[in-house]
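Deliverable D5.2: sample structural annotation.
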Amino acid sequence: MDRQELLNKRVVVICGGWSDERDISMLSANECHDALLEAGFGTVDVLDLASRDFVPRLVSGGYDVAFVAMHGAYGEDGCVQGLLEVLHMPYTFSGVAASAVASEKQLSKAVYEAAKIRAPRGVDLAAGTVLTDDQVDSLVGELGLPLFVKPAANGSSFGISRVTERAGVNDAIARASGGGGRVLIEECVEGTEITVPVIGNEEPRALPIVEIVTGAEFYDLKVKYEPSSMHHVIPARLTPGVYAKAQDLAVRAHRALGCRGCSRSDFIVTADGEPVILETNTIPGMTAESLLPDSARHGGIEFPELCTRFIEYALERGEDRD
């Protein structure tokens, strides 16, 4: 389709919802809305999933495509994608299965293993588990200290703890259990923290790698939404061979999970140059301070054009299904 035909498409930006990441979703949605208008789209509406009239407005709006700016539960885990599938409405980013698997860290780790992508060693537990002293000793003996304890299906660093003493393990499990899902306990992999955005459908490609410099114990909420210039080094300071390997692994993760449109895989690069994958985000943050838009800018893709490409990828997928 030509550019004007694309810009005539009616777009709805879906955001909000009920997860811990609601506020971040609203920020992403507002910036994507403005970027799409700047790109020249004539109709761009924003709908909050938590609104009582969300479904009637979505169904009656005559929209050609949905831009999903959801993060966390109900948005990044395949739920809203399922609704859009039922409505036969094309939408940005990954489908139901890829979204669900990527959002459950223990499931995505199984996919990484099958794709020969190294991930941290760890165990998953039911929410609310309380370990005995012997179990804590066994866990620490196997994985060492420090440990990371995190919700298996949350994002944006909500509920994550870095545990440096065995006495803190059960408290960290309780904190990670707040959402009621499973809890993941992983070894702490030391090294350089990077993230690798990938865009595209059938022929995905990696964007410039972002090195994350925090000065904090990990990339927590406070750091994530400070000015990007404080924490993002682009391109990441890696040797050419390691840089290329990290990009290849991110594309491999994107393909293995079945992602579409975009993904952003986070890694720790160890001292011996081995990228270890932490997770893959199927709907990365889309604010001015977010990692993927920052990477894209360094790769020559300004934010309005990036958002436009996501609409194009969504419509390509819709054509594939027709």
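Annotation notes: The radius of gyration is 20 Å. The longest helix spans residues 303-321.
The annotation will be released with the project's public dataset once the embargo ends.
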